[in-house]
Amino acid sequence: MVIEDIVSIVNNVRNQQPCYADDEAFIHWFLEAYLLFGESDAVIKKCIVGGSGDKNIDAYYCDPRSQKVFIIQSKYRQSASAIEKQNDVIQFFWTCKKIQEAYAEFVATVKNAEVKIALKAIKNAVDRGFAIVPVYVTTGKISDGIKKDVRDTFKGIQPIISDFPVVEGLYHDYLDGVAPPVPFIRLSAAQGEFIKLESPDDKKVKTFHFFTFSKDVRKAFKENDIKLFARNIRGYLGETKINSGIMGTLKDEPEYFHYYNNGITIISDEGECYASDSEFVLTNPQIINGQQTTRSIADSKSDDALVSVRVISIPKSNSKFQNIVKSIVSRTNYQNAIKASDIASNDKVQVWLEKELRKLGYRYIRKRMIRYEENKFYSQIYDWRIDRQVLAQSVAAIVIGPKEVREGIEKLYEDERVYKRVFKENAPTEYFLIPFWVHTAVKESSTQARSYALWFAVNYFHRALNSSIEPNDWKKYIKICERKKLQKEREIYLCFVKLGDLVFRMLIEGLFARKEKEEKKAGREIERSTFFKTEKAVAELEIYLKSPVSSQYRKPIDTQVAKIHKILKAYELG
């Protein structure tokens, strides 16, 4: 059950932050998942208030991007059946209303020093034009009647009520890499008209069709940026022919935009997509089709072009949620070609790998995007960068074979059996980092002439070293590669690079040169680029390694491996 998983997360946070009580550990996780994903623990801790006399304010966060200040009260219940009292819920929103409308009077009643500091920060943000967004979050339940009373009573602010079903959805988003989510966006329905359809199989699954204005789409993007596309399988692709066409229509024929463009498709939470005063308020929205359209609109000056919008409101607890999203994405994103690696980018193993590598200081790029977009998406400073394709090829070269890598990157994603071997679930991070750093060292001694044998070199480098060293020595190997800019580790790292050079010599000057000589005697030509792409090359290498003629290349390799083995044994982790 999800409530048990959330309890487990809270316990993990407490283990990492022993000073926390359970409720503080919960709000720490909530802040990370809802607003501050990717930020350090220190940044998150600064947002937590709490304590005696906290005036219903447990945390706050001033978001400069959206120009919103979030004021949060949380209730951590270890049972999802716990019911929140109406007075407790209503009182919190009255507190936020007082902060907005009678700040001086309210702050005079506060004695808690931490709360006073928080209120001063909130007031400064409001004075700069920030909007107050009160968030009441609980792992218990809040009745529909209380939710309606809150929305009817506090129309002047945008109240957000997150009880267990919403927290459950947030938990799934967190696992799926959709963190932090977008709390809400507002889109006006042109002429107040829209179509609503309910699924015959599940009344909770609804679809809304309407037209909105380009200025509304631009505002939604300006306030939330790339968080709107977390469930999309790609990042921004930059200046493409399609995007240039969209920009041209917005500039020259905005009145025809809705005729020429397919619009955008948005996934939103269940029961939180409603229309009032010709305006849709969509909570936890994600644009899963139409990213290039949205980005082009954001860069244009057009305000009144009509944009077709389709909103699918579906509970994340629905067992079909993931399949529905994946199907919509793969069947509607056809203007820019979808690759198998794109579809896999949101797999749980990819999201898990991104999170685990982040903890170790790595930026793992699991989606296709331009570098500028990448730097925005991964705003945190990282020590090392890993491209998804390089990682897939590096792992595959070792666990499957070099020939398969030469056949093309997408084949590693298209064959499910191959994909599951490359991106092995629940594998330790070393399973991925060892191939990555082997490839890095080998590539240092690669040249254009050697590049066709790169993945054979990666495979044999690992094979030669793995037959000599212990598993713990591989951890040392990784650490040395990570520290290769330091003088001591640099000297050791150059030993790895030399091993890669020796392996290339064996493959090119030994194996290929011998085969090339044999083919010429038979009156046939052989190309280096095609030779290392065949199954025959794998078999030829094994035959060559067993022959006496290979000894002139194998002996230097064995000597270098023995040297590395000795160095790794003596090297101390720390």
Description:
This protein is of the alpha/beta class. The protein folds into 3 domains: 1-177, 3-Layer(aba) Sandwich (Restriction Endonuclease); 182-337, no CATH class; 345-570, no CATH class. Helix content is 53%, strand content 13%. It contains 27 helices and 14 strands. The strands form 4 sheets. Strands 6-7-12-8-11 form a 5-stranded mixed beta sheet. Strands 1-2-3-4 form a 4-stranded mixed beta sheet. Strands 5-10-9 form a 3-stranded antiparallel beta sheet. The radius of gyration is 28 Å and the shape is globular. The mean pLDDT is 88.
Please count the helical segments.
Answer: 27
User: What integer is the average pLDDT?
Assistant: 88
| Morphology | globular
Distance between the termini: 39 Å
| β-sheet strand percentage | 5-15%
Q: Sheet with the most strands?
A: 5 strands, mixed
Computed CA radius of gyration, to the nearest angstrom: 28 Å
| Approximate helicity band | 40-55%
Number of strands: 14
